[in-house]
Amino acid sequence: MILLQDVSKTYYLGEVAVPVLKHISLQINQGEFVAIMGPSGSGKSTLMNIIGCLDVADSGRYMLGGTAIQHMPEAQLATIRNRYIGFVFQSFNLIPRVSALRNVELPMIYAGIDPEIRRQRALTALQIVGLRDRAEHTGANMSGGQQQRVAIARALVNNPQVIIADEPTGALDTHTGQEIMKLFQQLNANGKTIVMVTHEKEIAAYAQRILFVRDGQVIETQLESVVDNSVASK
Amino acid sequence: MIKSGIYKDVFEQALFSLSDNKLRSILSVLGIAVGIGAVMAVGSVTEGIRDFVYHELESYGIRTIWVYRDPDETKDQNRAVRQGSGITNEDYEFFRKSKTCCPALKRVTPQLYWAEQKPVRVGGENHLMNVEGVGVEYLEINNDRLEHGRNLTNNDINRRHPVAILGPAAAEDMYGRTNPMGKTFRYLEQKYTVIGVIKPKSRDIIEKVNADSYDPNKRILIPYTNLQVVFGSKDIHTLLGEAYSLEDTVDAMEQVKTVLERRYTGRFSYKSENMQGWIDNANEYIGKLRMTGLSFAALALFVGGMGIMNIMSTSVIERTREIGIRKALGAQYEDIRFQFLMEATAVSTVGGVIGLVLGIVATYVVGYSTGYGFKPSWSMGVVAILVSAGVGLLSGFFPSRHAARLNPVEALRHE
Question: What residue segments make up the domains of chain B, in order of their start?
Answer without folding.
Answer: 6-58+281-413, 63-274
